[in-house]
Write a structure and sequence with these properties.
Layout: H1 7-10, H2 22-31, H3 41-49, E1 53-55, H4 62-65, E2 77-79, E3 85-88, H5 96-99, H6 107-123, H7 127-165, E4 172-178, E5 183-186, E6 191-200, E7 204-209, E8 212-213, E9 223-228, E10 231-236, E11 245-253, E12 256-267, E13 293-297, E14 303-306, E15 311-320, E16 329-334, E17 337-338, E18 345-349, E19 353-358, E20 367-375, E21 378-389, E22 403-410, E23 414-420, E24 432-439, E25 445-447, E26 457-461, E27 468-477, E28 480-481, E29 491-492, H8 496-503, E30 530-537, E31 541-547, E32 558-565, E33 572-573, E34 584-588, E35 595-604, E36 607-608, E37 618-619, E38 633-639, E39 642-647, E40 656-665, E41 672-673, E42 683-686, E43 694-703, E44 706-707, E45 717-718, E46 730-737, E47 742-747, E48 759-768, E49 771-772, E50 776-777, E51 787-790, E52 798-807, E53 810-811, E54 821-822, E55 835-840, E56 847-852, E57 864-871, E58 880-881, E59 891-894, E60 902-911, E61 914-918, E62 925-926, E63 937-940, E64 946-951, E65 961-965, E66 968-969, E67 976-981, E68 984-989, E69 998-1004, E70 1011-1016, H9 1018-1032, E71 1038-1046, ...
Parallel strand pairs: 5-12, 14-21, 96-103
Antiparallel strand pairs: 1-2, 2-3, 4-6, 6-10, 7-8, 7-11, 9-10, 11-12, 13-15, 15-19, 16-17, 16-20, 18-19, 20-21, 22-23, 23-26, 24-25, 24-27, 27-28, 27-29, 30-31, 31-34, 32-33, 32-35, 35-36, 35-37, 38-39, 39-42, 40-41, 40-43, 43-44, 43-45, 46-47, 47-51, 48-49, 48-50, 48-52, 52-53, 52-54, 55-56, ...
Helix pairs in contact: 2-7
Length: about 1450
Amino acid sequence: MSGSIPFYQKHHRHYDRGYRSKETESKLSQYQSSSRYTAGSSTSTTSRSRGLKVSSHSGLEASRLSPVPKRAKPTYLAVDRENQIIGYVVPIFRGSEEFATGYSGTEEARVRDTAAYMARRDLFTSGLEMERSELISRREAMRESAERISLNKRIHEHEEHFKRMNEDSLMHPPEFVIKPRSHTVWEKQCVRLHCTVTGWPDPRVVWYKNNVTIDPLANPGKYKLESKYSVHSLEINRCDFDDTAQYRVSAMNSKGELSAFASIVVKRFKGEVDEYLPAPRQGPVSEYGINFKTHIVDKFGVSFGKEGETMSLGCTVVIYPALHRYQPEVQWYRDGMLLSPSKWHHMHWSGDRATLTLTHLNKEDEGLYTLRVTTKSGYETYSSYVFVRDADAELEGAPGAPLDVRCLDANKDYIIVTWKQPAVDGGNSILGYFVDRCEIGTNHWIQCNDTPVKFARFPVTGLVEGRSYTFRVRAVNKSGMSRPSRVSEPVAAMDPADRARMRGTSAPWTGQIIVTEEEPAEGIVPGRPLELQVTEATKNYVVLSWKPPGEKGLEGVMYYVEKCVLGTDSWQRVNTEIPVKSPRFALFDLAEGKSYSFRVRCCNSAGVGEPSEATEATTVGDKLDIPSAPGKVVPTRNTDTSVVVSWEASKDAKELVGYYIEGSIVGSSVWEPCNNKPVNASRFICHGLITGETYVFRVRAVNAAGLSQFSQESEPVEVKAAIASPAPPYGITVLECVRDAMVLGWKQPNFVGGADIIGYFVDYREVIDGVPGNWHEANIRAVSDRAYRVSDLKENKKYQFQVRAANIAGVGIPSLPSDTFLCEEWTIAVPGPPHDLQIREVRSDSLVLLWKPPIYQGRDPVNGFYIDIKEAEAPEEAWRGVNTKATEKLYYKIKNLKEGETYLFRVRAQNKAGVGKTSDVTEPVPAVTKPGTKEIVVDVNDDGIVSLNFECCDMTPDSKFVWSKSYEEITESSRMTLETKGNKSKAVFSALGEEDIGLYSCFVTHTDGASASYNLSAEELQRLLVISHDHKFPIIPLKSELAVEMQEKGRVRFWLQAEKMSANGKVDYVFNDNLLSQGEKYKMNFDKNTGVIEMFMDSLTPADEGTFTFQLQDGKATNQSSLVLIGDVFKELQKDSEFQRKEWFRKQGPHFIEYLSYEVTPECCVVLKCKVGNMKKETSALWYKDGREIKADEHLGFSEGVLKLEIAQISKKDSGVYKVILKDDRGTDTSTLNLTDQGFKDLMNEVFSYIANSSTPLKITSTEHGIRLYTFVSYYNDLLQVTWHYKDSAIAFSDRIKSGVVGEQLWLQITEPTEKDMGKYAIEFNDGKGGLRRTVELSGQAFDDAFAEFQRLKAAAVAERNRARVAGGLPDVVTIQEGKALNLTCNISGDPLPEVTWLKNDKEITSNDHCILKFASGKFASFTITAVDTVDSGKYSILVKNKYGTESADFTVSVFIPDEAGGKKK
């Protein structure tokens, strides 16, 4: 059938159904619009028999596949128990007659059609009918085929959707079915690594060599990568020794990544010489047209850290050309050893910056760190040192932590731990070390030795075989224990052979090859152990090692160790209980100084073998001696902060670990370690020293036995940069040329070697037809200028030149040969180029350009210069002039530069003939003011001497200050003296005058252009002369002029304060030109330390009106200050003096410190209070109001010197004048407070303010009369003024709108509100200041709710007011004698008029002659019984009722017969 698929493809969800032909697709599209049949009962039966649930596919649209509208949906899809589609159901056709079914849309029609067909077949057998049936059957079969194809498509789409929704059912991470295998090959052989990888989606496979991606294009013919059918291979052609490495293959897809490793060891035949190997590539290698250039910039310098800190080292790497995603090989080394990523070292490459992070510094991290960046064209490296000092000791005086803890020998029975001694012992000798161990997986540290060991090596025993351990070491001295060292790498307690078997038989990339031993024979007693020897002997332990015997039993061999004291024949077994499993053993508890021999026996189940040959006698003790002290120590200058220290190595030192270096500033006697990790060389650079200080150094050696004695101290050395020969000059140009001579100019070297250049040497050579000849010296003696005339040349010949600079360190290397110049006489009219351009005084907006005039003047003398400028990145066309008018000077200050921009400059000279050649261009100069830049400062000393001062912060030991006038160096001058001290220099004028006018500058050599200038103009000269005169004839400066102040008791103080006066200073006190002297009226005081000068007068009289003057003199310095006290000023001062005098006398008795005042509390109480002083028990305090004494009651109080009177609810009656009088035998004092008129008004305003602030927010409520707005206050006062506002206007009150106060509630009532009353309402409290306003919005929903509530309350009030009521008049009980008349009346109210009903015993009664019931005037209801009888006794009720309600009243009537005894009631 065309629509079915093979069984082996049916249940594969990843089966690709793209095999369908174009014809099949065409048939599908053709029959998609045709009808389809419905599966018959046979289909359903078949599907059920297979345990499947058959359902229709909801995605199939019947309208597209069949024109019959009522046909049932087909059931072609098969699903499992979770309703997941797993296939489809194919209907079974048993003959052509079954193809005829399915014509009708219902089961009944199908049965009827089938029965009709069967009848026709039985009754009519004509060929026409059969032909018609076959035609219909073929048509149905074609329809079925199309539907099958459509179903296949639908199932495929559903399965793809299922995959997307359940991708984990198919997708899985990569998995290595076959991993690559390690290989050991000979040189020039080929090797192939291959692996098989599965995964979905198909993994991407990448090969790495030592974690660097292998690129076959980078090495054509070297590597070949293949990937076919999940098999991936790497083929390496003609292996060489550099191919020895660890290779990694990484497989990665969307589900994960997996790697596998293999090693390749390339071996070389013994005796093979290196000349047969290809020569190493040197210089840049050009591969595929790319020549990489690598530059390491932004480098890390010498770094200092502390144990426990984190440190990052980084460099910026510039690779040109820059290729997107190009990955160079970045490696980090410490002391030449390659570092790998670990918990201690984190490495990062960001694309342009390499970073190494040391996560937790220890002394093991100290060393020389090297960054190596390798590209296809070569490599670049950069190195710098990292120093790590000890962490602060937990105990003062404790030693530093040991370092470099390692496990040298790991066996089943013991592990030998080694370490290095620390450089710092804490000031006391180290007594020994403790070794701790920790089992992997735990955090529990166990001390391995009970007593400290001094030897830096210790075998740890008592380990559990097969378990892994880490170790650490602590040092101890008499002050305490050090911090623990960094833990060692984990190591397992097992034999090396067992460890190798656990790793597997693959050889690691280091080239180790594992050779397994032959299977031992069965039932044989093992032989003698071989080659027994003592490998290590100390006073604490002895280590033995041997080789297993040649003959063994079937089981593993174990060993017994025996010892024998020298001089005896008694052998004693050491390990009596447990035999040794490994061929090494450590013996403890041996007597120090005794000699022992040792032997070993093998044993297995067959027996104990013969002993091995005994060792030579071994004396227990340390065989390793402490090294001798190093020899002569020689320090050498290196940089400003470092010194190179060299020494003679310790003689006959065994197993030397390294050396520790210490340095000390001369005279300090304090030694500091220069390194905390031993160095193996005999030369070390000590960094971190103080520039300019003088140091001495000493060295000691260290091995496992301990530290040696210190060497002899070195000679003192000053820390300053070493001197080197200068770099070559550059920029050689021709300044003038005649027939047989040429004048050359050049630029100073960028590096002068730390010392001044003392001269230059010029060489020349002739160039014939482009071929240069030999060099010849042009000058034998050095020339100091950067220009030199080379003579004895040949006219019209070509020459090249080179220049060398020289300083006290020697002559530097020559410059590059200059361009080729033709020696011919210049005849041009214009001048030659200026030369020796220099940049000075660089600032963010200006600089100064200096130059020298051209050597060649031209036809006429030079009469000016032009300066050109352009930005460094600008094209040549951007050159522009700085000055429009030629300058005659040889310097020019260029202004208006753009900060941060880099500029180039050149100079042109002119004469009458015109402008000449341009000079050489300067180096690029950025317009930036360097940090720490100083300017020249003018100073005038006390003697009036003027000086120019300049300070430089970036000086080197060889720097010098060069002072110039008009940029010409001042060498000898009678008008100026130069003084330099440290980093400061001073140019002192001898006698400042007009001859000194000019531009002064100072330049500091051996710096980055430190310079400044100062223009001494005529105006500046006059200003300085004035200052100089003031200094020569000084005035005593005053901090304050003469002033007067009032003191206690009315005492008057005249005073001033001078800036500074010596002990010889004196003061004259003058009043109206009369000298005053110390006496009863005048008291003088002069404090020379503070410069305060005082004069005191007890009081002022009219005769004291006038001018007071203080005249000061201190050496030649003078000054005076006057104070004029006349007229109103004097009168006011005199009045104040009298007042202060009276005040003083007042305070001798009881007095007021603070006069009477009031305070309003938050509870709106008024408290009158005053603060008093100098009180005693006899002092009385009397309160008065309006002259009448206030008697003491609970409102008066006195505490903590404060008198109080409390007014709880203030009102107008409390207005008045209050007075307090203090009185005792010492005097009287009075305080008055006026609380009338404005005073009382101010008080009430403050009360009103408290009331206003206590008010609650304005709220809305409804009553039966209307809407009410209200607020509450904490206290209400009748004097409080409140204003109600509606829409910001005051409300005019009426009968409808009223306001009022109920208790502490303030309200506004709106009677019968309407919509016109909607709006914003406010209540304003008037407190005499700004007032306080509370607002509420009565509109919208708020109004609707309030109005609805008002209507409800109003209706309820009407109903309550108008309902029927019995107002009274009826008694509860009526006792009456039989025969009497009873008449009861009650008031009835209600609107409308109520209905009245009378009841007796809850039954209605009516009016009759006996019982008369009346309801008169609508108000009075009467009840009358004309003659009561006993039958009238009972309970009576009146019931009134109208539409608003009903009310009843009850009474009881009791009739008694008087004849009955006791008046018994009926």
